[in-house]
Every structure is written in structure tokens, then in C-alpha cells.
Design goal:
single chain, alpha/beta, Rossmann fold, 2 domains, five-stranded parallel sheet, two-stranded antiparallel ribbon, 9 helices, 7 strands
Length: about 230
């Protein structure tokens, strides 16, 4: 007998934020360079920042500091840099970011198909909630977890397993959709099927090298694919 498709029986979706629903790179660029200016450091490019995004704010700021300081001095500068970054990011959060194509249509199609939705991001919850609200996406989600909402963040499976518990569903019934190996690793560890989008950040690596159950062009494509296997 042929094994059932991984998307068969899916009843909920866990969707990443940065690089999956919204292109937030312009926000990162402004906030980080405002932080660097405050610390008397020269500006850096979007391409430099792109490979650092996706593993939480702490990792991001340590990576930025590593451009200018030896490894044994990063922690010395970290508290001041983190404070400056958070202030600058909150002041411009969402002002420069944009929807990727068919995000709202895809979320609506998933809801119309009866799926429950959760947003799980490594972005701090104090950044994630106002961003989703500003961009008109918060109402699609039953559950929203930021990188500091739980004791561990992606690629640890804990956030995904917590959503499965919240929804009362087995991991095999909850698909994760994201743009990076972080999302895929968390899904695999949790036992969730996973779909990836090709347009996000993924730490500078090709998404085609990431272990997933399929690459989807948009969230609407994801909704159609899930519907195809659950018709």
C-alpha cells in the first residue's frame, strides 16, 4: 500500500512571521542601523542583515556586534546594543515591512477550509503582536507565540508541540509553514508535516536544501495543496 501523503488529515496550521507572511527586512535594516549609529558604528547593508535573521533577537544582535568586535568582547557590548535595538525597533515596527503576495488570501482560504491557525515566530512577542495587528493579520490566529513566550524557541519543537496541545491535535494533524531550516527542524522534531516558501531569509541558504514536505510559492498555494489532500 502507498503511504498516506503527509498533508492528509491536516486540521491546523502553524505559520511563521518574518520571511513567511511579511518582508520585515526593511524594518530590521532601519532599526539596526539606528542602533549602530547610537553606538558610533557604521551602517551595514540589508544583505549583511538578511543572513542573521530568524533565530531570535539575541542571536541577531550578537551577530551584528560580531562584525565589529572580537568574540570575547561581544557580551560586554550586548546589553547596551540590545536596549538600543529594542527601542529603535519598537519605534518603527511595521512601518517599512510589507505583505508577501497572497498572504491574506492564503490565511482566509485556510480558515475557510476549517483549519485552526497559529502564528509561531522567534520574534519577541512585544514586537510580533503589534506588527500583526498593524498589518491586519492578527485576527486570523487563534494562538500567537513569540520567541520569548515559552522557555524554548524554534528550532526546538516546544512551541509547535504547545500549539498542538492548545488545539487538542496530534502533531501529524498540524502543518508548519515557514521560510527557513529553523521552521523545518522544529516541525520534524515535533512530528509535524512542514511546507516551506522560497522567498524568505533562511540564513542565506537555499530553501531547496531544507528537508520539507514541499515548497509552496505562496500561502494561497499552501492552502490549495492542503485542500487537495483533504478533499
Amino acid at each position: 500500500m502507498t503511504a498516506a501523503h503527509p498533508l492528509r488529515g491536516v486540521r491546523a496550521a502553524i505559520i511563521d512571521l518574518d520571511g513567511t507572511m511579511l518582508d520585515t527586512m526593511p524594518d530590521f535594516h532601519v532599526a539596526i542601523n539606528n542602533m549602530r549609529s547610537e553606538l558610533s558604528l557604521p551602517p551595514i547593508s540589508t544583505d549583511q542583515i538578511r543572513v542573521m535573521v530568524g533565530k531570535g533577537s539575541e542571536n541577531l544582535i550578537r551577530s551584528v556586534l560580531a562584525l565589529d568586535h572580537p568574540s570575547d568582547q561581544i557580551e560586554l557590548h550586548f546589553p547596551k546594543a540590545m536596549d538600543a535595538y529594542q527601542r529603535h525597533y519598537l519605534s518603527i515596527n511595521g512601518l517599512h515591512s510589507v505583505h508577501y503576495p497572497d498572504v491574506a488570501a492564503g490565511l482566509q482560504a485556510l480558515k475557510d477550509a476549517g483549519l485552526r491557525l497559529a502564528c509561531v515566530t522567534n520574534k519577541p512577542i512585544a514586537f510580533a503582536l503589534p506588527l500583526l495587528k498593524l498589518k491586519g493579520l492578527d485576527h486570523y490566529f487563534d494562538v500567537i507565540y513569540g520567541g520569548d513566550s515559552l522557555p524554548k524557541k524554534k528550532p526546538d519543537p516546544l512551541p509547535l508541540l504547545t500549539v498542538c496541545e492548545d488545539f487538542g491535535l496530534a502533531p501529524s494533524q498540524v502543518v508548519a509553514i515557514g521560510d527557513s531550516s529553523n521552521d523545518a527542524a522544529a516541525a520534524r522534531a515535533a512530528g509535524c508535516p512542514v511546507l516551506t516558501v522560497p522567498y524568505g531569509y533562511n540564513h542565506g541558504e537555499s530553501i531547496h536544501e531544507t528537508d520539507s514536505d514541499g515548497i509552496v510559492d505562496t500561502l494561497l498555494h499552501a492552502a490549495n495543496l492542503i485542500g487537495l489532500h483533504n478533499h
